[in-house]
Specification:
Elements: E1 9-16, H1 22-32, H2 53-58, E2 65-71, E3 74-80, H3 88-96, E4 100-106, H4 113-124, E5 129-134, H5 143-154, E6 158-160, E7 162-165, E8 173-176, E9 181-184, E10 189-191, H6 198-215, H7 217-224, H8 231-243, E11 248-252, H9 261-271, E12 280-285, E13 288-292, E14 301-310, E15 314-323, E16 325-327, E17 330-334, E18 339-343, E19 346-350, E20 353-357, E21 359-361, E22 365-369, E23 379-381, E24 388-389, E25 399-405, H10 408-424, E26 429-433, E27 438-443, H11 446-460, E28 464-467, E29 474-476, E30 481-489, E31 496-506, E32 513-517, H12 529-539, E33 553-561, H13 569-586, E34 590-603, H14 607-616, E35 620-627, E36 630-638, H15 645-653, E37 658-668, H16 671-685
Parallel strand pairs: 1-3, 1-4, 4-5, 5-11, 6-11, 32-33
Antiparallel strand pairs: 2-3, 7-8, 8-9, 9-10, 12-13, 12-24, 14-15, 14-23, 15-22, 16-21, 17-18, 17-23, 19-20, 19-22, 25-27, 25-28, 26-27, 29-34, 30-31, 31-33, 34-36, 34-37, 35-36
Helix pairs in contact: 6-7, 6-8, 10-11, 12-13
The structure holds guanosine-5'-diphosphate and magnesium ion.
């Protein structure tokens, strides 16, 4: 098995708006590099990257895919990612373990929402990048228009290193502005620079030389003297500028026709950094961050960046080695869990194909099956020198649905399947909503949850339906009330007797429930008081308005009577419950609804639309804080109005917005809305 030094590895993530052609490009790259012998198409569901049934069915990528190949003496671990925003967790994981990115832009559509988002992610991650203008063969493809757009939106660092030869139907190849050679067709043949393009090529070449001279002290003098740098100097200068983010090369081609791919591979090889050039961030303890040097001759440090649940092999753990090496059939230390992890056979993944390897060294990426302790975000290391590498941060789930198993058998397997799903996807969370008894699955959007339920059926054989979660309404009283209830029965032998007086006081919002006894003189014997409390506690679970739990009430038992023979705990429980229900009815009960704090982040220009929409949702806008070009709107809004806000926000902003919610407090539901809810609950009962 071939081993690669740190300098001879590139970990590279493909990023773009959905549909710009990442998966097609990854296939063309593998094909051009000779890693695959057949060029599959996304539209036939036949690519190396999109192999999962959900991906084949939808013809979009849903998961990150590892696509390693060799180019010249270098191993390139290409990672294809989904462009659809519901699956951004995969993007974040892939970015965390990459040293470079290719941002794919469609030559006709240009910059789209996803392009802006991916650009921002690479900025946050400080990731050197190339831009590949794809689909040059398409109608409306216009290289120069897109380049202008890139420079306006992302800055003058975006620098064309190639020009297209022809466009749309007539797109034939590219001119390389660094080597000043031109390449036609697929596989690429070197050709003359078309004379019609020569002036344009010279002018763009000068721009490249100027841009490199500006960022490279060694070249600026030469440039000012009017001397042309050597090819080596130019490439070296470009490499420094790309690695430090001062130049973002813009390349061009067509994934579908495999045009421009060889030049793209050369650019990756020449300009993007190897793992050696990136420090590794570790956390020694919680507040101190320091970096360690990437090295293959050091103790092991490998970050687990993804876990997938496979019905056949079980759990598959994806890791990136930062220092040292990891061996098949060895033992490593998991610092986060404080335990030894047994490592079985290591594999390299290409799409769904697993190739066994005996060792993986620093810089490389692999997978191992059936780890027992380890989860996404953990570091595998040596016990002698434990380290924790900072993991990627995943977005919080914002969209929730209630999971209803279809059959009894589905119900039995539901818990295990849900916990494995959320283990595999850190952007999925499961919890049980105590107030409604529903199992709630939360994720990043409707499609995300839909795909999760398909996976549940396919991988674990569990059938479920998703429904909008019920709102956990509550009930309370608005005025004090006193109530008496006597439970008395004479049946055959000895009878039943329990008799209580309750005092109900409304409490302020958020107080919860209290119970007290002020019984004096033994009108109810002390040993029966807990039974009264039990009766009260059971009865408050279903209020008298719409059977929602009762809150913010203080219940005091202050009097009653008993019978020396007929009284029992059960009788006082029944009396307690009966008195409570009477008291609630007399206390002018109302329905309370949960109010959430919502924080919506949107580009400035959507502010009016977002506020308008929030107003139709009974929201109280509390603040607007511009943060650069983004506006952060804070509001309080009833949960009932924002159960599907992820979908509304996406359609108002075409996916440019994001939001977070958390619970604030309960508040009275406006009467006309409460009446509807009460009527619906009554209809359901009967
Ligand atoms: N005309 C043309 N279509 C392309 C090209 N690359 C990709 N496509 C098409 O664009 C669509 C989306 O491609 P895909 O690779 O799945 O995009 P992804 O979402 O970025 O992975 C598919 O229908 C592809 O066939 C290209 O170079 N030219
Ligand atoms: Mg794709």
């Amino acid at each position: 098995m071939e081993q690669y030094g740190l300098e001879n590895i590139r970990n590279l993530v493909l990023l773009s708006h959905c549909g710009a052609g990442k998966t097609s490009l990854s296939e063309a790259i593998l094909f051009t590099a000779g890693a695959i012998t057949r060029l599959g198409k996304v539209d036939d569901g036949a690519t190396t990257s999109d192999y999962e049934p959900g991906e084949v069915k939808r013809k979009i990528s849903l998961n990150l895919a590892m696509l390693p190949f060799q180019w010249k003496e270098t191993k390139i671990n290409l990672i294809d990612t989904p462009g659809y925003s519901d699956f951004v967790g995969e993007v974040k994981a892939a970015i965390r373990v990459s040293e470079g990115a290719i941002i794919v832009v469609c030559a006709a559509s240009g910059i789209e929402v996803g392009t802006e988002q991916m650009w921002a992610y690479t900025e946050q991650a400080n990731l050197p990048r190339l831009i590949f203008i794809n689909k040059m063969d398409r109608e409306n493809a216009d290289f120069y228009r897109i380049v202008d757009q890139l420079r306006v939106n992302f800055g003058p660092a975006c620098l064309p290193l190639q020009l297209p030869i022809g466009a749309q139907d007539d797109f034939q190849g590219i001119v390389d502005l660094v080597t000043m050679k031109s390449y036609i067709g697929s596989p690429a043949r070197e050709a003359e620079i078309p004379s019609s393009l020569q002036a344009q090529v010279d002018s763009f070449h000068d721009k490249v030389v100027e841009a490199v001279a500006e960022v490279d002290d060694r070249l600026i003098e030469k440039y000012l003297d009017g001397k042309e740098p050597s090819l080596e100097e130019l490439i070296d200068g470009l490499r420094q500028a790309v690695v430090t983010g001062r130049i973002v090369p813009v390349l061009v081609g067509s994934a579908i026709h495999s045009i421009g791919i060889t030049s793209l591979l050369d650019a990756i090889h020449s300009y993007l950094p190897s793992p050696k050039e990136q420090g590794v961030v570790i956390v020694a303890d919680s507040d101190k961050q320091e970096t360690i040097e990437p090295s293959q001759d050091a103790p092991l440090a490998a970050l687990v960046f993804k876990t997938s649940a496979d019905p056949y092999v079980g759990k598959l753990t994806y890791f990136r080695v930062y220092t040292g090496a990891i061996d098949s059939n060895s033992q490593v230390w998991n610092a986060a869990r404080g335990g030894v992890e047994r490592i079985g056979q290591l594999y390299i993944l290409r799409g769904k194909t697993q190739e066994p390897v005996s060792q993986l060294r620093a810089g490389d990426i692999g997978v191992v099956a059936k780890l027992s302790l380890t989860s996404t975000g953990d570091t595998l290391c040596s016990q002698a020198q434990p380290v924790k590498i900072v993991p990627s941060l995943f977005p919080e789930p914002v969209f929730s649905e209630a999971v209803h198993p279809k059959t009894k058998a589905d119900l039995d397997k539901l818990g295990a399947a849900l916990s494995r799903l959320s283990e595999e996807d850190p952007t999925l969370q499961v919890h049980r909503e105590a107030n409604t008894g529903e199992t709630i699955l939360s994720g990043l959007g409707e499609t995300h949850l839909e795909v999760a339920t398909e996976k549940m059926l396919r991988k674990f054989g569990v059938g479920v339906e998703l429904q909008t979660p019920r709102v956990p309404y509550k009930e309370t009283i608005t005025i004090p009330a006193k109530a008496e209830y006597k439970h008395k029965k004479q049946t055959g032998g000895h009878g039943q007797y329990g008799h209580v007086f309750l005092d109900l006081q409304p409490l302020s919002r958020g107080s919860g429930r209290e119970f007290a006894s002020k019984v004096v003189g033994g009108s109810i014997p002390r040993n029966y008081i807990p039974a009264v409390e039990k009766g009260v506690n059971e009865a408050v679970q279903e209020g008298v308005l719409a059977r929602y739990p009762v809150t913010d009430v203080k219940v005091t038992v202050y009097d009653g009577s008993y019978h020396p023979v007929d009284s029992s705990e059960i009788c006082f429980k029944i009396a307690g419950a009966g008195a409570l229900r009477k008291g609630l009815s007399q206390g002018q009960p109302i329905l309370l609804e949960p109010i959430m704090n919502i924080k919506v982040r949107i580009p400035e220009s959507f502010t009016g639309d977002i506020i308008g929409d929030l107003n139709t949702k009974r929201a109280r806008v509390q603040g607007m804080n511009p943060e650069g070009e983004v506006n952060v709107i804070e509001a309080q809004v009833p949960l009932a109005e924002i159960l599907r806000y992820a979908i509304d926000l996406k359609s108002i902003t075409q996916g440019r917005g994001s939001y977070t919610v958390d619970f604030s407090h309960y508040e009275e539901t406006p009467a006309h809305i409460a009446q509807k809810i009460i009527a619906e609950r009554q209809a359901k009962k009967t």
